[in-house]
Amino acid sequence: MTNDPPAPLGELVRHEDDVLQRIAAIVGRRTIPKGEVHVGDDAAVLAPFVGEALISTDVAVLGVHLDAHLFPLEDLGFKAVASAVSDLAAMGGRPRGAVVAVGSPPGTDLEELHRGIADAAAMTGCPIVGGDLTRSHDVSVAVTVFGECPGRGAVLRSGALAGDELLVTGPLGRSAAGLRRRRAGAPLEDELVVAHRRPWPRLNEGIAARGAGAHAMMDLSDGLGIDLHRLADASGVGFELEQVPVAAGATPEEAISGGEDYELLIATDDAARLRLIFHDRGLRAPITIGHVVASKTERTYNAEEFVRRGWQHQL
Amino acid sequence: MTNDPPAPLGELVRHEDDVLQRIAAIVGRRTIPKGEVHVGDDAAVLAPFVGEALISTDVAVLGVHLDAHLFPLEDLGFKAVASAVSDLAAMGGRPRGAVVAVGSPPGTDLEELHRGIADAAAMTGCPIVGGDLTRSHDVSVAVTVFGECPGRGAVLRSGALAGDELLVTGPLGRSAAGLRRRRAGAPLEDELVVAHRRPWPRLNEGIAARGAGAHAMMDLSDGLGIDLHRLADASGVGFELEQVPVAAGATPEEAISGGEDYELLIATDDAARLRLIFHDRGLRAPITIGHVVASKTERTYNAEEFVRRGWQHQL
């Protein structure tokens, strides 16, 4: 708060507290479990977690993660929460809550931004239990989610074994195709544009895959072209990619390197059990895309080298 | 990632992963508890928490929370982590870990920033278990900390009762005095300047106060002039402030509205027990500053109205 002028007495000094109260009314949960404290104290207090605790943080910046000319501000809030919750899905976790730290310049519609945050929180069953606001040049949303893993432990990226089947939870490229369509003038309600604006974390699929004993799992946030390499790097293995399922309306390149699909990538030695559990729970059948090989350097797509490619920030 | 150019094949595409690896080497803990996963997967995995879970998030922006002309970048990282950990101290919690989401423009010395983050993590016993990096115009650090409350539950702001004694864990105004001295040319090593650059979360004091059955507690991040009102608001009470302990080298005004001292404000009906437990644990004696009264509107300092004042962001 170094460069702020000292706040004057009287009305203005209540400004931050007032804004916080309006936002708490938007993101606050109507019913807070007995004994818990969400927004309003120094820290949120939650009832004890069951099993391992999972934590992940993601920051989204207007102009970097979302084009303000093409999309409403609430989409930034929605995407920030959804991409963070997807990291819990990628471990097979169950969300317990999230906190949001928002930076914004004067005049930003913080209520619109928080409506997007609240929508994603409600749709993923992940209550917003706290937050922080600050002045900044960028509009940014840093979301931290935490979850729990009752029973069997979290599914890591590093557990893939030679011979495992590789599967994804759905066809790829919808988000990149939606962005392309929006740039070409498609309305916000276009089905693929909605896939870009409102990504859906695969929580049920992640929990089912953990229950089915999957060896390794991650979410495809940056595209199969880079994330498949990351899973292989973490597991110390290679892969033979045999097919990439392309979503209707997307191009093969969008399916490989578009990113932001948030489908799960799963490695398992018992794909039949995985399919059965998905079927029993009414989930869409996972799609086999290839298998894991022992040689770390063997990384092929239909027998040709599969080059690492996808979205990366230039830092 | 909307406005990034698609990353080219080959070297550049590994840039983000490379930076992440260098940073992980700075903030990563040398010994990770068996069964835990910190940096490197979709989410961090921690062993089960004991008792209630505490969560808090804080964002610090260069130029808002720290003057880049007066202080090194690593101070931004240190202060961001310390102020977040202080929120755990304010509940009487024990830290279990933190995640950091960093936004920065090209050319930012991310390693220096993360050295400050790592220093604060080491000094508070709060390991950095994950993070995220993004491109932005501001240099910003969003820190989310989580802790646990074994035994007796967290101490809230809302529990103060009429008749309670109000105490603080130390004299106030050191941080504001240090900033003033730095602006006047004092070296970075000046004792009060260090108090501004390297705030110390009162974790041991918070745990001791929780054990002593304190009714209410919070940290003085924005100054007694606003935080005492916040505690009274949350508890639905008033107060009679009798003295404000001013740190050596600070002014009375800095002690009241300077902020960033991170001493704890405690309300208890058994100050003798609090003092005894602090003494037994080798902690500095807490200082009585006044007491709680039933009337919400009675808020006085030596019988005159105590007006709400302190740092607030203009949002």
Task: Describe the protein in words.
The structure is a homodimer of 315-residue chains. The first copy, chain A, is an alpha+beta fold and 315 residues long. Chain A has two domains: 47-149, 2-Layer Sandwich (60s Ribosomal Protein L30, Chain: A), CATH 3.30.1330.10; 165-305, Phosphoribosyl-aminoimidazole Synthetase, Chain A, domain 2, CATH 3.90.650.10. Helices cover 31% and strands 23% of the residues of chain A. Chain A has helices spanning 15-27, 73-89, 110-124, 174-183, 191-197, 203-211, 224-235, 252-257, 271-280; strands spanning 44-46, 52-61, 94-104, 128-135, 140-149, 165-168, 216-219, 238-241, 264-268, 287-293, 299-301, 304-305. Chain A has a seven-stranded mixed sheet, sandwiched between helices. A four-stranded mixed sheet of chain A has the order 2-5-3-4. In chain A, helix 2 (73-89) runs parallel beside helix 3, helix 2 (73-89) packs parallel to helix 6 (203-211) and helix 4 (174-183) crosses helix 5 (191-197). The longest helix of chain A has 17 residues, at 73-89. The radius of gyration of chain A is 21 Å and the shape is globular. Mean pLDDT of chain A is 91; it is low at 1-14. Chains A and B meet through helix 1, strand 1, strand 2, helix 2 and strand 3 of A and helix 1, strand 1, strand 2, helix 2 and strand 3 of B.
